[in-house]
Structure formats: C-alpha cells, structure tokens
Amino acid sequence: MIKKYVLETRPQFLVLALVLVVHGSALAAWHGSVHIGHSILAAVALTLLQSSVNVLNDWHDWSRSGIDHDTRQTPFSGGSGMLPRGEIQPQTALTLGVGTLLAGLAIGGYLAWLAGWPLLVLGLAGALSVVLYTPLLVRIGAGELMAGLGLGVLPIVGTYYLLTGTFDIAAWISGIPATLLTYNLLLLNEFPDTEADRAGGRRHMVVRLGKKAARWLYLTAEIGVFVSLILGVVFGVLTPWALLGLIAIIPAARAVRITLKDYEHFEALIPAQGANVQALIGTNVLMAAGYAIAAVLL
User: Fold this and answer.
1) Domain range spanning residue 169?
2) Which among 65, 87, 132, 196 is least buried, having the fewest CB atoms inside 10 angstroms?
3) Model confidence pLDDT, tens digit, residues 32-50
C-alpha cells in the first residue's frame, strides 16, 4: 500500500527538490553559513510540496479535465499513469495530494517561524503555485514560469535565507539557471501532450505558440541558462567554481539538437526529455559542487 502511494508521487523526479536545497545550502556554505538540520528539513518540505503538485496534477487531469484519458505516457511526461490503469483511486490520490501539501506547509511554517516572515512569503508563493498550477496556471500560459520559480530560484533563495538570515544577489543570480531549466523541463514535456492538453482546455506555451515556434523558445531558454551562469561569474557575483555547471551543456546540447529536429515526433522526443532532465539535475549539482569547493578553499 505504501509503495503505491510513493509511486504516485513520481519519486524518480523528486530528486529535483533535493538538489535545489543542496544548491542553496552549498551557496550559503560558501558565504560561511552551514546548518545541516535546517537544510534537511527544507529538503523534506520541498519534496512534500513537489509530491503534492505531481499527485494533484494527476488527480485533476484524470478526474476533472479528462486530459489523461487521451494522453500518451512517456517515462518523463503524461503523469504517473496509475489513475488511468486503476492502480489508485481518484479519492485516494486527492487525499494523498492534499496530505503532502499540508505536511510540506507545516514544516515550511516551522522553518519560517525560525527564520522570519520573509521565508514565509517565499514559502506561501511556492505553495500557491502548487495549488493553482493545474486548475489555473497552465490554462493561462503561466504554468511553466510559475513552476520555474517554484522549483528554481525560490527554493534556492529560501534555503539561502534560512541558513544565513539574509538575502544576497548571489542567491538570486544563482537561481536563474535553475529557473530556466525547470521552465524548459515543463516546456519540453508539453510537446508530446499538446493535442490532449489543447482538447482539455490547457493553454500552455506549446499550445499557444505551436510546436514549431515553441522549439525556439526552448532553445532560447536553454541558452539563457549558461549565459546567465557565465555572466554571474564575469561580474564577480558567483565564484568561478560555479562554472563547473557548464559541463551540463553536453546533455543540454543533445536535448536541443533532438528537439529542433524531431519536435513533431513522439518517440524521437523521449531521448531529448531524458537529456533535458540530466541537464537540469547536472547543472544544479555541479554548481553546488563548485560552491562547496569554494567554501573549502576559503
């Protein structure tokens, strides 16, 4: 029974929450602040919130919009597939989604009580994006942006504030690559689902622009990832060690190459989706490693 609940949260993708907190924690360590206990609690809270958005999205797409009745699932998009297969009931999924949301908010509230009201504001913004993502944000073309913020710059800045008690331009700049990469994670995963999403009332960027134009948006955002990282170092905001993140250009370039060529072909896009995930996780991990090296060398 527990295994079924865990699988519904799409645990293979929850590593993103962990690496974002590691990213923010390593940046704080470079600036001289470390608190392993608080970092662990932040990772648990963000993981619960990401679990919630995954489950509630599944529930809504099966029980409300009906999108998942027509969606072709890939290893990276189309939800968990458990509701269409009857492996979990809609009411159970709803209870799980709300439960993980409340648990994440409880831990986040405790951390905000420790760190101060600015962290509460960041946490509420993230929670709001969880609640509104499927019923509203993806219907007005704001889903990718809010997901990018909620699983990008906001967790990094929030973790940094939790550990240091301050806001720093370095945290905001360091969060730009993460935001653009998460934006592109959603954007690329929308390509295989475009027809079903359009029929279900979603108006995300691929529906609005069409696949042919949306591939150039994907390319632009991916270029922005590495340009922002380089500029952060050039202007002295980030340590040169953060340039380790540039290694992730390798899977990013593969994802871009496939997307530009095979944007209309369902099966051909699956390797691009995999490379896209590698670029997202790799950039955050490598930047965190750079901050950790810089902290040790201080």
Assistant:
1) 2-297
2) 87
3) 999 999 999 999 999 999 9
